[in-house]
Amino acid sequence: MSDKPSVLFVCVHNAGRSQMAAGWLAHLAGDRIEVRSAGSAPADQINPVAVEAMREVGIDITAAQPKILTSEAVQASDVVITMGCGDACPIFPGKRYEDWKLDDPAGQGIEAVRPIRDEIRDRVEKLISELDAR
Question: Which of the residues are catalytic?
């Protein structure tokens, strides 16, 4: 690992959960941790309800774009977190993999997305404390 750990968040469309997680990590860790996100079948745009949910807590993810998952992105990351969507991620030795089982915000209203957003924050805070302690 380099001096600065890097985390890759992966979900199918890279439009909701992984973007919210990347937004939280960038917001809470600042530049201490490198943040990436990607999807195996990226959507055309970020889920507008995910954008709205993050805006409610003062985090702007409107500039983010769904990106295709590449083996290079996985290789360049220390921690790879999948979002409970059964993605076939390339597996590389020496990487830390976690699967966060989270409801998919796609097609959900803001009331359903808020608890997903808040659960992601809790998990990201725990991840930051683990990475800071290494």
Answer: 11, 85, 89
Mind listing the pLDDT tens digit for each residue in 29-54? Answer: 999 999 999 998 999 999 999 999 99
- How many domains does the chain contain in total? 1
In a domain, 108, yes or no: yes
Domain that holds residue 67: 6-133
Residue owning tokens 């803001």: 110
Specify the CATH number for the domain of residue 70: 3.40.50.2300
